[in-house]
């Protein structure tokens, strides 16, 4: 149990004291009535579906269905316009521009640093070990009185591996003057359990997930953030009032009627991942395929640049990570369908080495 943690001392004071915008849908939450409060068009929409009404600002129905799927209470859920919105709001909630800092562990997801940069928040970097795990001692040593967020991406992008739970626990236990965000965008592709079920015992823990990867809903732009009710209340206070559009909410409700559908698709991706990893590893152009707990493979080539160019010429697009620390000569390759993976392999066979 983490007794020293005091969230209200970590939230920026002006945000703690902020009176949020009160939307029309905040002030009257009933569903029946003659709605003349929000300056909507009473005659309908210019498209065939009726989208003339503002959506639920807190997405209550979605959270009611999502909570049991994730083993959390509805009040512990925030939905954002992509997880990227949650990343930005977390930084703005706790980091004072020009004063506070965050710790990230490269190579990792780029948005933590970009969001911090937009908000004029300093970024401290503690590189992962050569096997892409956390150097826990160094991370804990890097904490200073102005450190407000430690970002852990597990499974990590672009390396693909899950982070050892003992390291995450050590950081949760060793950092009580800020929050620890575990980004689980790829949680559906690993056998490691999610940290969502550990929120009550770790008040400094925030977990991020997304509908963009396993759920196949990247275009809806909806990310999930799980934390204490107190911190979720702060995010709700500072988010744009109607941050999840009505069409997205409708489709998310449909997705959550049948959450089992995700596991079928995940199973297909995991099968393809295994086949693809084995076949790529057999290519003479390839030095190493790193173990993956996600829906992509990090692959080290003899010459990543020529592999990348060859693939692009054949209109096969992968992600060049060769300029990223510890990822020299590496490409990040999303697991595709069987046919896409075969096309990729055929093309790779033509790469000079
Ligand atoms: C893809 C990804 C996200 C996701 O983003 P959305 O904004 O929800 O689409 C977040 N974190 C990591 C590590 C990712 O790779």
**Compounds present?**
pyridoxal-5'-phosphate
Cα shape: globular
Distance between the termini: 54 Å
Mean of pLDDT: 96
Characterize the main sheet: 7 strands, mixed
Strand-pairing-aware structural class? alpha/beta
**Strand/helix succession:** HHHHEHEHEHEHEEEHHHEEHEEH
In spatial order, strands of the major sheet run 1-7-6-5-4-2-3
Number of helical stretches of at least 4 residues: 13
- Rg over CA atoms, rounded to whole Å, is 22 Å
Percent of residues in helical segments?
25-40%
**Share of residues in strands:** 15-25%
Number of strands: 11
Low-confidence stretches: none
Task: Describe the fold and architecture.
The protein has 353 residues and is of the alpha/beta class. Helices cover 35% and strands 15% of the residues. The chain is built from 13 helices and 11 strands. The protein has helices at 7-10, 13-16, 24-27, 60-70, 83-94, 111-118, 136-142, 165-174, 229-238, 246-257, 261-281, 304-313, 338-349, and strands at 77-81, 101-104, 122-125, 147-153, 179-183, 205-210, 222-226, 286-289, 296-301, 319-320, 330-334. It has a 7-stranded mixed β-sheet, sandwiched between helices. The longest helix is centred in the last third of the chain and has 21 residues, at 261-281. The N and C termini lie far apart (54 Å). The model has no long low-confidence stretch (mean pLDDT 96). It binds pyridoxal-5'-phosphate (PLP). Residues 82-84, 109, 153, 157, 183, 185, 210, 212-213, 218, 223 line the site of pyridoxal-5'-phosphate (PLP).
């Amino acid at each position: 149990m983490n007794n020293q943690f005091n969230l209200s001392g970590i939230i920026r004071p002006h945000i703690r004291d902020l009176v949020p915008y009160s939307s029309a849908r905040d002030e009257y939450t009933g569903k029946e009535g003659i709605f003349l409060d929000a300056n909507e068009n009473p005659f309908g929409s210019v498209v065939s579906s009726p989208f003339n009404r503002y959506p639920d600002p807190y997405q209550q129905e979605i959270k009611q269905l999502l909570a049991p799927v994730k083993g959390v209470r509805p009040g512990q859920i925030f939905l954002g316009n992509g997880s990227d919105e949650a990343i930005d709001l977390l930084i703005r909630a706790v980091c004072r521009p020009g004063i506070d800092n965050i710790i990230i562990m490269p190579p990792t997801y780029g948005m933590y640093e970009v969001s911090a940069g937009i908000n004029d928040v300093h970024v401290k970097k503690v590189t992962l070990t050569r096997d892409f795990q956390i150097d826990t001692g160094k991370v804990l040593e890097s904490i200073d009185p102005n450190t407000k967020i430690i970002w852990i991406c597990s499974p990590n992008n672009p390396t693909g591996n899950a982070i050892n739970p003992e390291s995450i626990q050590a950081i949760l236990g060793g950092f009580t003057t800020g929050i620890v965000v575990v980004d689980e965008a790829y949680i559906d592709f690993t056998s490691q359990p999610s940290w969502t079920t550990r929120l009550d015992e770790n008040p400094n823990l925030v977990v991020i997930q997304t509908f963009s990867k396993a759920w196949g809903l990247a275009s809806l732009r909806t990310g999930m953030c799980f934390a204490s009710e107190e911190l979720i209340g702060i995010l709700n206070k500072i988010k744009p009032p109607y941050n999840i559009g009505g069409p997205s909410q409708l489709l998310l409700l449909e997705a959550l009627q049948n959450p089992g559908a995700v596991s079928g698709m995940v199973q297909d991706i995991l099968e393809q991942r295994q086949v693809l990893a084995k076949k790529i590893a057999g290519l003479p152009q390839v030095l190493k395929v790193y173990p993956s707990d996600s829906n992509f493979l990090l692959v080290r080539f003899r010459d990543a640049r020529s592999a990348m160019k060859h693939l692009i010429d054949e209109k096969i697009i992968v992600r060049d990570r060769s300029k990223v620390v510890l990822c020299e000569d590496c490409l990040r390759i999303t697991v595709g369908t069987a046919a896409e993976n075969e096309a990729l392999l055929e093309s790779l066979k033509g790469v000079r080495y």
